[in-house]
Every structure is written in structure tokens, then in C-alpha cells.
Amino acid sequence: MLFGKRARVISRILIVEDEPLVAFDNEHFLTEAGYVIVATVDNFADALPVLAEQEVDLVLADIRLRGEGDGTDLARHASTRGVPVLLVSGHAPPDEPGLAVGYLAKPYTDKMLVSALATLDDHLAGRRVKRLPPGLKLFQRA
Q: Is the C-alpha dihedral spanning 59, 35, 90, 102 positive or negative?
């Protein structure tokens, strides 16, 4: 498309966050930025049926979640379905190749989150990423 916006690789997002205010803020900011929020849940068990029943382009998941399972378990499950995961946390993720496509350190601002998703979109589309926004780390895909 000439002089238009590129088609996004990421448009439909599942938010998995157990801090209600962070989840609400993420929903709001991402909706304002043009993303579709498929669902917002606060635990691993509630995320599984969403992944099974909905079209999801990206899971935005906190590492530490309520109940059984955490964000890393969710990332492993999502990878079996071909859905990339961006982990968000104040705690660094384990060094496990292929676990997630990236990590965004908390705390982050709405601008940092939107910038991280735009960078991640370029990365997933195979476009060259020149500079990472603050707090974002991309991982090599397995």
C-alpha cells in the first residue's frame, strides 16, 4: 500500500495480567492504539480456552500469575499453537530458548508498551529492527 500504514502482524491480543489496574490500563491503551483485545484474564487456566477458541496474534502475559501455572507455562502452551508471547514482568524471565518472543520490563508506560508492540510487529514480520525501545528485550526464535 502506497503512503499508507503497513498491515500489522499483531492486531488481536490476549492480555493475561493479575494486577487489575495494570490489566485495565493495558486494555485501554492498546484499544486506543488500534489493537483488538480478544480477552483479559488473570490466570493460566482462564487463558487456555481463549487460546483454543479465539484467533490470537499475541499473548501479553505477566510472568507471575494467580493460581496454578504462570506466564512461562502459558508461553510454552501458546508456542504449541504458534502464538507468540511477550512476557511482561518486574522479574526477568528464565533463559529458555523459544519460550517467548520478547520481554518487557515493568514498570512501563503506555507509550513504552505501544512502542514495544510496534517493534515486536516489525520483528515478527521479518523487518529489520534498528533500535529497541526502553525496557524491551527480543529473544531469538527457536
A: positive
